[in-house]
Write a structure and sequence with these properties.
Layout lengths: L5 H11 L3 H11 L6 H16 L1 H8 L3 H7 L8 H10 L9
């Protein structure tokens, strides 16, 4: 058994079961206002994008790959102009409920 990081394990799980992506991002969004929540949300988005192939996601979103990596990095701060196309490229959409 080889050692791998938590991020690598989650990315592999998302690669094996793409249907988990929506649940994973939804859970991260629900906790985004907690301490560490924004960083966890970016990590979740990055893991889903990596599971689907960052280059392919960037191309589908119409965003340069380097820009997508930067936006979803630990210190990233994606704008809606980046976030919405990225979610769509991942096969997801943003919704709000009361």
């Amino acid at each position: 058994m080889t050692d791998r990081s938590h991020d690598e394990a989650v990315t592999e799980l998302l690669r094996q079961n793409p249907a988990l992506a929506a649940e994973y991002i939804t859970a991260a969004l629900e906790q985004a206002d907690l301490p560490g929540g924004p960083v966890a949300l970016l990590a979740a988005l990055r893991q889903v994008a990596e599971a689907q192939g960052m280059t392919q996601v960037a191309a589908r979103a119409g965003i340069p790959r380097e820009s997508l990596y930067r936006a979803l990095s630990r210190n990233g701060n994606p704008t809606l102009k980046t976030l919405i196309p990225t979610l769509h490229a991942l096969g997801l959409h943003l919704s709000v409920s009361a």
